[in-house]
Write a structure and sequence with these properties.
Two copies of one chain form a homodimer. With 264 residues, chain A is α/β, with parallel strands linked by helices. Chain A contains six helices and twelve strands. The first copy, chain A, has one domain (37-263): Glucose Oxidase, domain 1 (3-Layer(bba) Sandwich), CATH 3.50.30.
Chain lengths: 264, 264
């Protein structure tokens, strides 16, 4: 009987070991090229969509040295901190908060939550993700993890190559694309513990929002936004992990960010 | 006796479990803000050192919208792909090879090897890291791991804030800073399996090199360089892991890179 219980203990240890061994591999796998990494970053080019206002300029690229094929061997570029896939540092909408070079690296690594409201947005380009969308997501997938980055899939990512569809201007020149609601931002900031939020179009506030309420709430709380995020349809609702690596401009209000999603 | 052997087996399992559990934590720890991350990236500013040639320009920043404090709420910048902490894509010196947007994310995650030749470089600013420096490092720390990024600590990182010391020009305007030797580059490319190399000054070729032999060898093999890498003196010779996240310029010859070193 004692032998039997010892054998059971042994078996229990073997069993409890197994998942740990698997987990143990994930770190090694990540740095040995063996984990799936989804690049959530659009490439930057002179045709990349940009916000059509007086501070909006296309990405500008000069080839300084040409390779024989005509490809650049060296180039120089000019760009707004907020063009393409980028991060808004808290200082963008909250004077005195962190600039882009001041966000601690650890604050840019965290679990990804993807809330897919793309079908609602397809029906209504002015849709805002509401509190209930978050609660519905949690009912299905469990509580939003600690230190999550909450990404809204509006379906806009697939329009990136077509700047007119991406901007979706009406006859008055008013853009129409979806965003977070203020109540959703309040919930995430006050009742969950998140690192930041992100979206697959120009702005975490929808185009027709006035006074950027979501920017004020999230940047105001010292948190970042990711905008023009690519490939959200390639991520699971939960279980991916983000690495956000913005260009380190001293005192910058934001900047181009490379976003890698690790999907174990 | 049999009971004793079962107990021994149990103990062996407990023992073999322990390091696996620790390993298991590293992935979770990384994405929960619990691992040490060293930022190997210098901040970009108008005083950042740049290569003094006709294609060299200072980092240029315009504030488009000011916060009440005077801090930028929105900015636009102009920069060479090869200013500050940056990655040379293979196409920089090898026509037809990968541009910066074309390097697979998995090829930018790997173990770091840091070869400290800073005392030799302090004695001779034209020093090149030779084959024997690599063999000496391996004699002490073991073989260079598969898929490593091999970083040369020349001691130049600490001069970054002093552009004159960083450039170290003689009376004829010739810069003097150390680099890799061609024989070291050949060894790493042909006899080891590396992802790329990096250095804490302007160039993986020393300043007085002619025709950039190291660029031709490493880019020619389809591998990348990291230049102006910061904080190499904060890394162990082995045991750190690098995440390299360059700005994703379509067809670019290189670009500013955020480099995070994870030091478990």
């Amino acid at each position: 009987m004692r032998q039997f219980s010892i054998i059971l203990t042994t078996l229990a240890l073997v069993t409890s070991c197994a998942p740990k061994e698997k987990e143990g591999d994930r770190f090694e796998e990540l740095f040995h090229g063996e984990l799936k990494i989804v690049d959530l970053t659009h490439p930057l080019s002179e045709t990349s969509p940009y916000w059509p206002d007086p501070n909006g300029y296309a990405f500008d690229y000069d080839t300084l040295i040409k390779q024989p094929s005509g490809a650049p061997g060296m180039g120089r570029y000019k760009v707004s901190e907020h063009l393409g896939t980028h991060m808004d540092a808290p200082i963008h909408f909250a004077d005195g908060k962190s600039s882009i070079d001041d966000i601690a690296p650890n604050e840019m690594f965290g679990p990804a939550v993807v809330i897919d409201v793309s079908s609602k947005c397809a029906a209504d380009a002015d849709y805002v993700l509401v509190k209930q969308d978050i609660l519905d997501w949690e009912a299905e997938h469990g509580p939003i993890p600690e230190r999550a980055i909450v990404l809204m899939n509006s379906g806009w990512g697939n329009k990136w190559e077509d700047a007119a569809a991406y901007k979706n201007e009406d006859e008055k020149g008013q853009m129409h694309f979806p965003g977070f609601s203020a109540e959703a931002a309040e919930l995430l900031i006050k009742e969950r513990n998140i690192l930041g939020i992100g979206i697959d179009n120009f702005s975490v506030d929808r185009a027709i929002a006035t006074d950027f309420p979501v920017h004020l709430i999230v940047n105001g709380a010292g948190k970042f936004h990711l905008e023009n995020v690519a490939n959200l349809d390639q991520l699971p609702p939960t279980g991916a992990y983000l690495i956000n690596a913005p260009i380190k401009i001293e005192g910058g209000s934001g900047g181009q960010v490379r976003i890698f999603a690790v999907v174990p």
